[in-house]
Each structure stands twice: as structure tokens, then as C-alpha cells.
Design brief:
- It is a single chain.
- It contains 13 helices and 18 strands.
- It has 2 domains: 284 residues, Aldolase class I (TIM Barrel), CATH 3.20.20.70; 134 residues, no CATH class.
- Strand 17 and strand 18 form a beta hairpin.
- The chain is an alpha/beta fold and 470 residues long.
């Protein structure tokens, strides 16, 4: 394997190894502090991170507000406290080595307020802001205010060009790097555009080469590109390293960083990673953000798939083939289905899926009474964790704080499930019945000899292994 040399990033020389930020208490100050101490770039998640009591125990994030708006304000307060706690831990553990970045989602609730207040209170602790899940035009303005570097996450040269022309050209000196996230291989939310086929992955090399050509047109010859998604052994990427066509390249490790001793995920989650097979990670469109995302195909995903499969179109009046009457809800309000769809509905009802829920697309989905109550409770309890949420119809924008659309029961409360798996993943049932984000290469844990006999490395051991090869 080629020798891995340091590159210039964020004004300092670091190893071209970046920890991928994983939201809601997964990439924390401990993992990022140790990663930075190893000479690379550690990344903690500032997405509803944990804060701690005087004994160092995570404080459960509870909400007492009677309205969504009140709970949204509570969520922002929790997020600021948690991000500051993680920044301090990362700074202390890094010992002044490497770099510590904070990862935010542009579409998370209160993103601008949260990162602004965190940077105001954490001066000198955070060296960079990594940001994706949307088009973060104002990211550069925030970075300039606090003189920190910024690292937008994009999935195409076109997306970066739009960000540059609208905003980033004004703050070019603080652009520390551009994260290219492979939309077919990365874990978590993915940046697939409407013109891209989720079933047809594209080779990242020409896409990243196009990004570099675009960056050179803007004078960004030496600004690193950080390759994220699908990276496992660096020897598989030797043709990228020191490639003059691509320029400075760093590599981001999100999924591999899950399986370390310092990683806060529970033992049941770690053991599940060691048993995954190729194809066990599922690219889906269920997220309340509206983005595609990649997650382990467990019972949680199976239920969502079934919920979406048990779906029929309806009309409020008899029209065309929609001539069969069907009563919806406690008052059995009549809608019209096609005769074949009514046959499917009767079959689903016989299986226990007796509750019909309306979607914004004039369809009905069929779930059990228990699942119906859970969906409705989760929608009522929304705390505005996203800027807009298709599951609950929340929007953080005034005056109505609503998307103006019907809440979509085909999705789910992302805050609830991510908090549950983050804090209960020592239990197999929590791992099976919650959203478990993962990159598509997670199946390689089972075949990589580094993890033989269930070996779980420290962060330092993992960094050392990445640098030396297989």
C-alpha cells in the first residue's frame, strides 16, 4: 500500500483520515477526541447530542412543553447543551492534536441557532463545521463570524457550484474542504437527486473528478476533497492517492468508526454489525426529511415497507374505476376504491390491518390498531427536530409552524427512534426495532480478518490499521 502522508486541511497538517459524523449521540466527544489524538480529524455530532449530570451520566432529553413550538425551544436548548458537552470532551481528549469538527444537518430543527450559540460558547474547541442534508448556503457566513473552517457535504459538482456561486465565493479562505458523499454507499441520509436512479450506483471517481475540475475553475486547486461512503481499505483507493488529476484527497470513515471500544453504541449493536451480510443495508425513502437514507434492513424497516405496500389510492367521489364504497375512520366516512383494491383491503383487514390512515397523496395505508395509535401519538408529541417534517407536518417557519400538508403516516418519528437506539442498543430488541443507520459496506465487518473472533479495536488501533493496510 502507498505511504499515507499528511495533507493541509483547515490550516494545519493532518492525516487524511476523517471520522464521519453520525447523528444523535453516536459520534461523540470521546470518539472524536481519540480520532483527533491519532492525528486525523475527529467529528462529533451536534445533532441532539447528549449532555451529562455531575456524575457523567447522560441526561434523558424530556419535554414538558404543551405545544410543538414550546417543545421545539426545549429541543434547541438540549442540543446546545449537548454539543457543548461533546466539544469539551473532544478537546480534552485530543490533547491539542489533529482537528475536531462539529457535524450538523442543515435540515435539523434550529440548525443555525444551535451551531451559532455553540460556536459562541466553544471558542477554541471546534476547528471546523461539517454540514450536509440540504443546501447550507449560510454555512460560510456562520464560519466567517467565528473564524472557523467549514466543510459542506455534497454529492455532485453541480451542487457545490450552486453553493459557491451563491455564497461560498465570499468566504473562500475558510473553505477547509469539500466532502463528497457517495449517495449510493454512504450511511444515513443521502444526497440522491431526482435525476439519479437509486438502483443504479455510479462510479465515484468520475463524479469526484468532475468536482475537482469545477473547484479548479473557482481557484480551489489545493482545497481537499474528502471522499465519504464506501471507504474500507485504503489500498482499494491507491489510484486516488497522490493522483494529480484529483488533487488533495482525504478519506472519511463513518461505518468503521462505529465498531470501536470508544464507540458509545451498545454491545447488541456492535454484535449485529459483525453478522451483517451484503445487501443487509437498505437504501430507502421513508425518512421524514424527504431524503433517501441507508439503514440496516431490520424489523423496523420491514414494518415501514409493509406499511407502504399496504396502500391503495382512493377518490372522494365515484369516478372512473373508483366505484367501490369503503368507510374510513370511526365515522366510516365513505371514499371510493377500485374493486381490485377493495379485495386487497379485505385481505389486509383479515390479517389484522384494520385501521386505514390517509396520506397526503390521496392514498390509504392499512396498519394494526396498535400501530395506528403509536403513529398518532408520535405525531402529536412532535418536538420539531427537523426544519420541516413530513411525518408530523411540523415546520419551524412562522406563522403557522406547519408544512400546510397532511401529516404522512408512511414515515416515522426520527427523533424517537434514533434516541432509543442510541441509548438502548445494548438490548437486541432495540437494535431490531429502531432505525439503524449504516453505510453499505457494513457487511465487510464479517469478512475483514481485523475483526476475527469478534475483535473490537480501540480508535487508535483502527487508525493504525487503516494506515498500514489490511
Amino acid at each position: 500500500m502507498k505511504l499515507i502522508n499528511a495533507i493541509r486541511m483547515g490550516g494545519v497538517d493532518v492525516l487524511p483520515l476523517v471520522e464521519g459524523g453520525k447523528g444523535v449521540a453516536i459520534s461523540n466527544g470521546i470518539t472524536s477526541g481519540h480520532w483527533a489524538a491519532g492525528g486525523g480529524v475527529g467529528t462529533f455530532s451536534a445533532v441532539n447530542a447528549d449532555s451529562y449530570d455531575y456524575q457523567g451520566r447522560p441526561i434523558p432529553q424530556t419535554y414538558s412543553g404543551r405545544t410543538r413550538r414550546e417543545r421545539h425551544e426545549e429541543l434547541i436548548s438540549w442540543a446546545i447543551k449537548g454539543a457543548l458537552a461533546q466539544a469539551r470532551r473532544a478537546h480534552d481528549l485530543s490533547g491539542g492534536k489533529g482537528r475536531v469538527h462539529a457535524n450538523i444537518l442543515w435540515e435539523m430543527g434550529g440548525a443555525e441557532r444551535i451551531i451559532t450559540e455553540v460556536l459562541e460558547s466553544a471558542k477554541g474547541l471546534i476547528h471546523g463545521i461539517t454540514c450536509g442534508a440540504g443546501m447550507p448556503y449560510r454555512l460560510s457566513d456562520i464560519a466567517a463570524r467565528f473564524n472557523v473552517h467549514y466543510y459542506p457535504i455534497i454529492s455532485s459538482a453541480r451542487a457545490f457550484a450552486a453553493l459557491w456561486k451563491r455564497a461560498y465565493h465570499k468566504t473562500a479562505t475558510l473553505l477547509g474542504g469539500v466532502v463528497y458523499e457517495d449517495p449510493w454507499l454512504a450511511g444515513g441520509h443521502n444526497g440522491l437527486s431526482n435525476s439519479e436512479d437509486p438502483t443504479k450506483p455510479e462510479d465515484p471517481f468520475p463524479r469526484v473528478l468532475a468536482l475537482r475540475k469545477q473547484m479548479r475553475e473557482f481557484g480551489l486547486h489545493d482545497t481537499p476533497i474528502i471522499m465519504a461512503g464506501g471507504v474500507w481499505w485504503l489500498e482499494e483507493w491507491e489510484h486516488w492517492i497522490d493522483n494529480p488529476e484529483l488533487g488533495p484527497i482525504a478519506f472519511q470513515f463513518g461505518t468503521r468508526a462505529l465498531l470501536t471500544q470508544e464507540s458509545p453504541i451498545g454491545d447488541a449493536w456492535k454484535q449485529r454489525l459483525l453478522t451483517l451480510k451484503e445487501g443487509d443495508v437498505f437504501l430507502n425513502h421513508f425518512s421524514p426529511t424527504g431524503f433517501y437514507s441507508s439503514a440496516v434492513n431490520n424489523s423496523f424497516i420491514h414494518e415501514l415497507r409493509g406499511r407502504n405496500d399496504r396502500q391503495v389510492a382512493y377518490a372522494t367521489e365515484a369516478v372512473g374505476e373508483h366505484v367501490s364504497e369503503f368507510g374510513v375512520g370511526p365515522r366510516r366516512r365513505i371514499v371510493f376504491l377500485t374493486p381490485p383494491d377493495l379485495v386487497h383491503v379485505r385481505q389486509w383487514e383479515a390479517q389484522g390491518y384494520t385501521e386505514a390512515l390517509r396520506t397526503p397523496d390521496s392514498t390509504l395505508i392499512f396498519v394494526t390498531p396498535e400501530k395506528s395509535r403509536e403513529i398518532q401519538t408520535d405525531q402529536v408529541n412532535c418536538m420539531g427536530c427537523l426544519s420541516t417534517c413530513r411525518f408530523s407536518n411540523w415546520s419551524q417557519h412562522e406563522p403557522d409552524y406547519s408544512t400546510g400538508k397532511k401529516a404522512d403516516p408512511r414515515s416515522f418519528c426520527i427523533q424517537k427512534t434514533l434516541q432509543d437506539i442510541a441509548h438502548n442498543s445494548d438490548k437486541p430488541e432495540a437494535v431490531e426495532n429502531n432505525l439503524m443507520f449504516s453505510g453499505h459496506n457494513a457487511y465487510r465487518f464479517a469478512s475483514d480478518p481485523f475483526y476475527s473472533n469478534g475483535f473490537v479495536p480501540t480508535v487508535r488501533q483502527l487508525v493504525g490499521r487503516i494506515l498500514t493496510g489490511r
